[in-house]
TrEMBL record:
Domain HPt per the UniProt entry, residue ranges: 39-134
The name this protein goes by in its record: Histidine-containing phosphotransfer protein
GO MF term list: histidine phosphotransfer kinase activity; protein histidine kinase binding
Organism: Nepenthes gracilis (Slender pitcher plant)
Matches recorded under Gene3D superfamilies: HPT domain
Physiological role: Functions as a two-component phosphorelay mediators between cytokinin sensor histidine kinases and response regulators (B-type ARRs). Plays an important role in propagating cytokinin signal transduction.
């Protein structure tokens, strides 16, 4: 098997495993397929942007929820932002946890918000390395001359 085909196969195996675990849904494949329309670097840039933005949002949520007087409106806004990002890229397990955070923030329950945030962080840490591996493979595929 040629190096490019082996890389494509490895990437598809990782994606399939994440789908089988319930971590990714069809939106991830839709995002991956957008490279056919938008160019070979789209997907290789989309996932790292998602990972960076998610890390920043999780940090901001942690800070908000550690305040003695929580601004639940700000928590709701960040939960909506994060849920949108996770749903659009297809990290469905994170999107569900973001929904839990939103409901807890709507109820203004700091303890439940922290529990939901910890669920999101756990899921993010669980899939982070695998998404990063997908990006590294994708960049190698692009470097070999194609998508």
């Amino acid at each position: 098997m040629a190096p490019k085909e082996a890389l494509i196969e490895r990437m598809q195996v990782i994606i399939s495993e994440l789908e089988e675990e319930g971590s990714l849904d069809e939106n991830f494949r839709v995002a991956e397929d957008l490279k056919d329309v938008t160019g070979p670097y789209f997907f290789a840039n989309l996932v790292p942007t998602f990972l960076t933005d998610t890390r920043i949002t999780l940090r901001d949520l942690t800070r908000l929820l550690e305040e003695p007087s929580v601004d639940f409106g700000a928590v709701v806004q960040l939960a909506i932002k994060l849920r949108g990002a996770t749903a659009s890229i297809g990290t469905c397990s994170m999107a569900r946890s973001c929904g839990n955070l939103r409901r807890a923030a709507d109820n203004q329950t700091q303890e439940r918000c922290m529990q939901a945030l910890n669920e999101i962080k756990l899921e993010f840490s669980r899939i982070y390395d695998r998404l990063d591996e997908i990006v590294q493979i994708e960049r190698r595929i692009v470097a070999l001359g194609g998508i």
